Amino acid sequence: SGGSAPPALPEEDCMRLNPSFLGIALSSLLAIDLWASKRLGVCAGEASAWGSARPLLKVVEVSGHGIPWLLGTFYGLCQSDSSAAREVLLNLLFALLLDLVLVAVVKALVRRPRPTHNKMDMFVTISVDKYSFPSGHATRAALVCRFVLHHLVLAVPLRVLVVLWALIVGISRVMLGRHNVTDVLFGLLLGYALYSVVEYCWLSPLNAPALFALW
Length: 215
Known about the structure:
By secondary structure, the chain is mainly α. It has nine helices and no strands.
């Protein structure tokens, strides 16, 4: 009674009463991310602040979707009569497939739900597309942007347009309410890094003769 020490709290209660600095920082970042994403989702629905611009941003959405890029790359690969062009297109196809697999794996592991203000009317979705992190469109846009800038000879205005397209695709994901800000930022960084992997594993007639024998 008199001089006895108070009973010790369970470990989990101590953790709740004394949260780590990292935990506080992550919670604050998540709260800011959700708040900013909702404020920036100005085209999430027809009744939103910029709802009239929603059809235009959905065109941008299709321009960064995987299916048009995969079909277009495969068609170009089949129609190309230049060995150099076939090599570039085959590696672009490899990059796009690698991007799809990696994003699907990360989404399935993280399982972050899409923003609550998102309207599920996206162009051709699969099971993991119900998850938000990371943005596959942003990842693909950054990957394709680096690939095109490194392997196509373009005039400066066209190079600027390619970079702007990648940025607009990323921004449109938040404006449409499809993703949170951190989903897009991580997606852009992942796509940028993924290009380095593609360059390191570059396919050529020397290291992948069987693939080039198909075309």
